[in-house]
Specification:
The chain contains 15 helices and eleven strands. The protein is of the alpha/beta class. It has a single domain, classed as Aldolase class I (TIM Barrel, Alpha-Beta Barrel). Helix 3 packs parallel to helix 5. Bound molecules: flavin mononucleotide.
Length: about 350
């Protein structure tokens, strides 16, 4: 698995552990993957700038190998930039029944919904990971230039052919193409996510010969057969998400991990209900009951995130997002060494 992409990224294996936002990455997961010669990642989209530096130090305390930090270039949709008093009171009744059911008090209206991407980017540059990957857009030419100057390799993410071409023209070092099979958000940035629903199989074979840089295939890969198929279609590496999320080393709750190894994975859904942006998770009561598009991202996810701790304490997965990709029914491995042995058994 020593492809050109692996050489560029300084890896023994052309395998990227998919970054997870929202606290589901963990320093232990990232370091465990990096220590085995693949690229460990941490999704820092939810972190304040000062916490990004602490996090990088934590990972560096566990591995001396390259790792990847990941940001969302766009952190709010139209109308989701802030939550004024009137909008807060108008939206609250839609979430109130779920708060009541889980015994959670009405939250205080937030002064700020999300740290500005620009500030997070500055912290990332200071943290200087070997690799900076990003979704939901392309950093400015100045930002990409500063990464190059600091020796940070850049990896963009495409959900369509035009997005991959745009990333290539922007001069990134590698492109993750992610099919609709993937768990988590559909990270489109040129057209709506609903109009950007290509599968990993098509996206990989079409994009690979059309861009100058290595393509990393993501979405639906959980074992060596998936890795081989992606390489056969022209990818120079793979990014695996759900299968790493299911490992004990990840930041997922025990209930989330148990759900990933259950028959519930047979029914996943792509919905805006969980966050306000289109994303894939296990179909549950929340997805069935709550209308989609209640509030724009990140207002929707802000209200729902306040339920997480109570749901976790009560062992419940019916009223919170349970992120999951479509190939999860084939998951087998519960820890990073076992999963890495599987993925590299070509
Ligand atoms: C819970 C969860 C959170 C994710 N968060 C991010 C993220 O913040 N940034 C990102 O680039 N990809 C994110 N992803 C996508 C993964 O990194 C990876 O590309 C994807 O899971 C691959 O598809 P698979 O789940 O079928 O393996 C997330 C995926 C999941 C399951």
């Amino acid at each position: 698995m020593t492809t050109e992409a692996a050489r560029r990224l300084g890896l023994d294996h052309a395998i990227v552990q998919g970054p997870f936002g929202g606290g589901l990455s963990s320093p232990l997961l990232a370091a465990s993957v990096s220590n085995l010669g693949a690229l460990g990642s941490y999704g820092i989209e939810h972190l304040a700038p000062e916490d990004i530096l602490k996090l990088a130090a934590d990972i560096r305390g566990r591995t001396s190998r390259p790792f990847n930090l990941n940001l969302w270039v766009s952190v709010a949709d139209l109308g989701g930039e802030n939550l004024d008093e009137a909008a807060f009171e108008r939206l609250w009744p839609l979430f109130e029944p779920y708060y009541r059911e889980l015994g959670v008090a009405k939250p205080e209206r937030p002064q700020r919904l999300h740290a500005p991407y620009e500030d997070q980017f500055e912290a990332m540059i200071e943290a200087a990971p070997a690799v900076f990957s990003f979704v939901f857009g392309i950093p400015t030419p100045d930002q990409l230039g500063r990464c190059k100057k600091r020796g940070i390799l850049t990896v963009g993410t495409a959900t369509t052919i035009p997005e991959a071409v745009a990333l290539d023209e922007a001069g990134v070092d590698a492109i993750v193409v992610t099919g609709l099979e993937a768990g988590g958000h559909r990270v489109s940035f040129m057209e709506s996510s609903e109009d950007s629903l290509m599968g990993t199989f098509s996206l990989t074979q079409i994009v690979a010969p059309r861009v100058k840089v290595p393509v990393i295939a993501a979405g639906g890969i959980v074992d060596a057969r998936g890795v081989k198929a992606a390489l056969m279609l022209g990818a120079q590496g793979v990014q695996v998400g759900t299968a790493f999320l299911a490992c004990d080393e990840s930041g997922a709750s025990p209930e989330h991990r148990a759900a990933l190894f259950s028959d519930r994975t047979i029914k996943t859904v792509l919905t805006r209900t969980y966050s306000g942006r289109l994303a894939r998770g296990i179909r549950n009561r929340l997805a069935d009951e709550m209308p989609t598009n209640v509030a724009p991202y990140p207002i929707q996810v802000w209200f729902l995130n306040r339920l997480k701790a109570a749901a976790r304490a009560q062992g419940r997965t019916d009223l919170v997002s349970v992120w999951c990709g479509q190939s999860a029914p084939n998951l087998k491995h519960h820890n990073v060494p076992a999963l890495m042995a599987e993925l590299t058994n070509l």
